[in-house]
Amino acid sequence: PETGTGAKFFFLPSLLGRCEPDDTAWTYKSTDSWKTTICHAVLFPDGVPTGLMERLTAGVLSSIYAASNENDKDAAFAPLSPTIRETYEGPLSVKEILCWRTAFFLKIGTQATQPDGSIKESIVEIFTHLASKDSHLCIGSDYIGAGMRRLITSGRGQVGEGGRKIWKGGYLLVLKCIMRVMHEYEGVEFEKHGFCPDCLSKKHVSEASSWDHAAIRAAMTNSTPTLHCQFGHVVDVRLVTGMYDQPRQRRSIRN
Fold it and tell me: Which residues contact 198 (CB under 8 A, 6 or more apart)?
C-alpha cells in the first residue's frame, strides 16, 4: 500500500528468517483474571498447501493496514469489503507486528467512547502459527496423528461480554482473512475446530479439548448459551462462536 505522503509498505516473505517462534513469542496463559485467550484452528490431515503462510500473512497484513487507515482519504489501497468491515468496531491501530516464516503476531488497539465521554483503548494480541504436532505451540496435539499440521489462530484480551472486545478488536477480521485465503485453494482437505478457553488457561496446551465446526454451527443455530468440553468446563458460547444478541452478528464465523 502507498499513502498520500508517498510512504510505501512492503511485505517480503523472502526476507523472513527461517527460525521458528521461540518460547517467548506466545503463551496461551494469562496472569490477569480479566483476560482470556480464545483459539481456533485448521487441521491439515494430508498436507499443507504450497505458499500458504506467505499468502495468509500478506492477506491479513493488507486487511489490517486498510482497516487501521480506513478514514485516511489519501491512502491508496483497495477498499475493504462489507464482510471484512463488519468484523471490527471502532478505529483500529496497529501497535506491533512480528513475522516469522510460519507465524505472525499482531498487537491491535481499539478505541471506544465511554459513557462519560472519555476515550478508552482495548488491546488485543493475535498470534497465528502453522504448527507441527511436536511444536510446543501446537494446541491439542495429543489428538492428532503424526505428520499432521495445524494452522492455529489465538487471540488474547478482555473476557467481558463473551470476549466481544477480542472478536471485534481484530480477531474476527483475521479469521475471515484466513478463511478467504483457504477457500482460494481447490481440493485441499482441512477441518476447522474451536478450542476451550478454560483448557487453554488450566491444562497443558497439548491436552486442550475442542469442538468441531459442525458443533459450533449447531450452537449458533440453536442459540445455545454454553458449551461443555470433554473435561467438564462450561464455556460461554460467545467465546467460541463470536455470537452476540444482534441478528447481524450471528453470522460471525460461518464462512
Answer: 229, 231, 233, 235
